[in-house]
Write a structure and sequence with these properties.
With about 350 residues, the chain is an alpha/beta fold. The protein folds into two domains: about 240 residues, D-Maltodextrin-Binding Protein, domain 2, CATH 3.40.190; about 90 residues, Periplasmic binding protein-like II (D-Maltodextrin-Binding Protein, domain 2), CATH 3.40.190.10. Helix content is about 40%, strand content about 20%. The strands form two sheets. Strands 1, 2, 3, 4, 5, 6 and 12 form a seven-stranded mixed sheet that branches. Helix 9 crosses helix 13 and helix 10 crosses helix 11. The longest helix has 19 residues. The chain is globular, with a radius of gyration of 19 Å. The protein starts with a strand and ends with a helix. About 50% of the residues are buried.
Length: about 350
C-alpha cells in the first residue's frame, strides 16, 4: 500500500490548477494501462482511497483473499490523507480508479466532464452520530464542533448535514465542522475531547461506545438516505477508453469481491479479515459484517449505478446547498455502467 502525503497532495493540486491537461498521457494500449504494467502475469491497477474502512470492505477482501488475481489484476492501493486529493490524482493519471462521494464528483465534473461514476460501492447510509457523554440529543449539538474526514467532500460531512438539517440545524448558524481525518482518527479526536461529535459506523463506533461515548441518531432513520449513491468507484473516461480491457478486468475482480462478501460460507473469513485489517475485536468485526452485509446490504451485487438512486442523491445534494448540485436532466452524463456490464458478461 502506498501513502500519498500532504506535501505531495498540495503539489499535485497546484499542478492541476496550473494545467488541467498537463498530464494527459493515458497509456498506449491495454497491455500497459498507463501507470499499470504486467508483473508475473498480472496487470497493476492503482486505486485511491483515504483508508481501508468499512465502506470499502470489498477492497479488504480483494487484497486479503487475492480475489483480483483470477481476473489478472494486481492492486496498487494508494492512500490519501483526505478525499479532496483523490480526484486530482485521478485526473493526473497517478491512480486509475478512486473512491468518492457523488457530491465531491459533481463539482469536479463541471471542469472535467470525462470523470465518471463507473460502479456503485455503497447505496445505504451506515452512519450514526456519536457524541461526547454530556450531549443527549441532536439539538444539543448547537454551538458544537463536528469532526469529519473532509469538509465539503466526504460522505460523513454530507450525511451529517442532511441528518442535522432534518432536525432544524444549519451549518455555521448552529454548529461547525472541522477536518479530523479518516474514521480511526475521528474516533480518537472524539474520545480525547478534541471534537464534540463525529459520524461513524462499526467497528470504530463500537470502540467509541466502549469508551463512554454515545450514539444519538442513525442516518438510516431518514428515508432519503436509503437507495442512494453514497459511495462510488470513479475513473477518467480518457483512461478507461484507452485501457478498456484492463478496466473491465479490474471491474470483474470488483464484482467477484462483492459477491464473495455476500456468500454466507465466507463470513468467518471476512470477519477475521476485518478484525485483522481494522485492528478490531472479533465481536466488533462481526457487528461490522452484520451491519454492512446482512442488515444494510450496502453494496449492490451488480455494481451498477441505479438512475433512481442517483436522482435521490442529486436531490439530497441540492438540499445540502451544494453549489455544484446537478440538474436532474444531466444525470445520465454523470455515470457510465459500461464497465460493470462488460465485466458481468465476461464473468
Amino acid at each position: 500500500m502506498r501513502k500519498f502525503g500532504w506535501f505531495k497532495g498540495m503539489v499535485l493540486i497546484c499542478v492541476m490548477a496550473l494545467s488541467a491537461t498537463a498530464c494527459s498521457e493515458w497509456g498506449s494500449s491495454d497491455n500497459s494501462g498507463g501507470s499499470s504494467g504486467k508483473k508475473g502475469g498480472l496487470q497493476k491497477v492503482a486505486i485511491g482511497v483515504t483508508s481501508l474502512n468499512s465502506l470499502h470492505l470489498w477492497l479488504i477482501m480483494a487484497q486479503d483473499e487475492q480475489l483480483m488475481k483470477p481476473s489478472g489484476i494486481k492492486l496498487d492501493v494508494v492512500t490519501f490523507q483526505n478525499t479532496g486529493q483523490i480526484i486530482p490524482a485521478l485526473i493526473s493519471g497517478s491512480v486509475n480508479f478512486g473512491m468518492a462521494t457523488p457530491e465531491q464528483l459533481f463539482g469536479a465534473q463541471e471542469k472535467q466532464a470525462g470523470l465518471k461514476m463507473v460502479a456503485s460501492e455503497v447505496t445505504n447510509d451506515p452512519y450514526q452520530m456519536i457524541v461526547r457523554p454530556n450531549i443527549t440529543s441532536l439539538e444539543g449539538l448547537k454551538g458544537k464542533t463536528i469532526g469529519v474526514t473532509g469538509i465539503g467532500a466526504s460522505a460523513d460531512y454530507f450525511t451529517a448535514k442532511l441528518l442535522l438539517k432534518g432536525h432544524g440545524l444549519e451549518e455555521g448558524r448552529d454548529y461547525h465542522f472541522v477536518n479530523a481525518g479518516p474514521p480511526p482518527q475521528r474516533a480518537t479526536a472524539l474520545v480525547k475531547g478534541q471534537v464534540d461529535a463525529v459520524m461513524s459506523f462499526p467497528p470504530d463506533a463500537q470502540v467509541m461506545l466502549s469508551k463512554g461515548m454515545k450514539s444519538i441518531a442513525q442516518a438510516s432513520s431518514l428515508p432519503n438516505l436509503h437507495k442512494i449513491i453514497m459511495g462510488s468507484l470513479i475513473s477518467d473516461q480518457r483512461w478507461y477508453s484507452k485501457n478498456h480491457d484492463l478496466a473491465v478486468k479490474f471491474m470483474r475482480g470488483y464484482l467477484a469481491s462483492v459477491k464473495w462478501l455476500y456468500d454466507p460460507k465466507n463470513k468467518a473469513k471476512a470477519v477475521a479479515d476485518i478484525a485483522k485489517d481494522m485492528k478490531a475485536s472479533t465481536a466488533d468485526a462481526t457487528i461490522t459484517y452484520d451491519t454492512f452485509i446482512t442488515k444494510l446490504k450496502a453494496s449492490p451485487l451488480d455494481g451498477q449505478i441505479d438512475p433512481s438512486y442517483l436522482t435521490t442523491t442529486a436531490k439530497n445534494a441540492k438540499s445540502e446547498g451544494l453549489k455544484a448540485a446537478p440538474s436532474l436532466d444531466s444525470l445520465s452524463s454523470r455515470y457510465d455502467n459500461s464497465l460493470v456490464k462488460a465485466a458481468a458478461k465476461s464473468d
